[in-house]
Amino acid sequence: MNDKSELLEQYDAEQKVEKNLDFRFLLLVYMVMFVAFLIILPKIYIKNQIYYMSRDINKLYGEYSILKEENRVLKQNLENIRFKNQNIRHDLYRLIFLHVNTH
Predict the structure, then answer these.
(1) Chain center to CA of 80
(2) What secondary structure letter does DSSP report for 32?
(3) What pLDDT tens digit does each residue of the chain (103 aa) get?
(4) Coiled-coil region(s) at which residues (predicted)?
(5) Distance in angstroms (rounded) separating the CA atoms of residues 102 and 96
(6) Which residues are CB-contacts of 39 (< 8 A; sequence separation ≥ 6)?
(7) How far apart are CA 21 and CA 27, in angstroms?
(8) What's the CA angle centered on 26, arms 23 and 32, to 5 degrees?
(9) Which of 4, 6, 7, 58 has CA 20 to 30 A from 77's CA?
């Protein structure tokens, strides 16, 4: 029984011993974290830049599409005005011709 209690006391004593981390292990952990940040942070930065650039590109493309449609409408309006102008000019020439021939 004495051996058993002695063994239990040694086990309890071993359990009570604090296992502190040494400086080298702590330094190793910090270095691993630093390297991980060096690898991960540029990737995050690049992904964010790609996202914001693609968002700007989509915005500009939307504005381009709107301007292209406005340009088409303006060209159509210009063509209509030219057609009306041509008709008015033709009518004016005909009136002048009729007026000259009647006098």
Answers:
(1) 41
(2) H
(3) 677 787 778 877 777 766 677 889 999 999 999 999 999 999 999 999 999 999 999 999 999 999 999 999 999 999 999 999 998 888 888 888 877 777 6
(4) 57-84
(5) 10
(6) none
(7) 10
(8) 140
(9) 58
**Rounded Cα distance, 99 and 102, in Å:** 5
Give the closest residue to 83 by CA, choosing from 73, 75, 72, 71.
Answer: 75
Residue length of the chain: 103
Tokens linked to 99: 């007026």
Write the single-letter amino acid at 46.
I
Three-state DSSP at 20 gives coil
Q: Which long-range contacts (CB under 8 A, 24 or more apart) does 81-89 make?
A: none
Quote the strand ranges of the chain, DSSP E. none
Which amino acid is located at 78 in the chain? L
Distance CA 76, CA 84 (A): 12
